Amino acid sequence: MQQHLELPTTGFLRLNQILQIIPIGKSTWWAGVKSGRFPKGVKLSVRTTVWKVEDIRSLIKTAGGEAISY
């Protein structure tokens, strides 16, 4: 069962939080980032990447309620 995630106004989201909103797999997300379909993340460390909430909101708005999938 998926929980509804309330997006904060500002800040950053980790990948597991994004995938609760956009139901796709990790590899699909990373392929979309590489192709430019999804926003690039911000590297906090070698193994930690986050995305700006504003970029994720924009992605959702641009999709206009369409299913984001491949």
Report what the structure shows.
With about 70 residues, the protein is α+β, with helices and mostly antiparallel strands. It has one domain (about 10-65). About 40% of the residues lie in helices and about 15% in strands. The protein contains three helices and three strands, in the order βααββα. The chain has a three-stranded antiparallel beta sheet. The chain is globular. About 5% of the residues are buried. The mean pLDDT is about 90.
Topology (elements, then pairings):
Elements: E1 12-14, H1 15-21, H2 26-35, E2 42-45, E3 48-52, H3 53-63
Antiparallel strand pairs: 1-3, 2-3
Protein name: AlpA family phage regulatory protein
Organism: Pseudocalidococcus azoricus BACA0444
InterPro entries: AlpA
The computed structural class is alpha+beta
Integer tally of domains: 1
What sort of overall outline do the alpha carbons produce when their principal axes are compared? globular
Mean of residue pLDDT values: 88
Q: Largest beta sheet, briefly?
A: 3 strands, antiparallel
**Stretches with pLDDT under 50, minimum 5 residues:** none
- Which series of helices and strands comes N to C? EHHEEH
Protein name: AlpA family phage regulatory protein
Organism: Pseudocalidococcus azoricus BACA0444
InterPro entries: AlpA (IPR010260)
Pfam families: Phage_AlpA (PF05930)
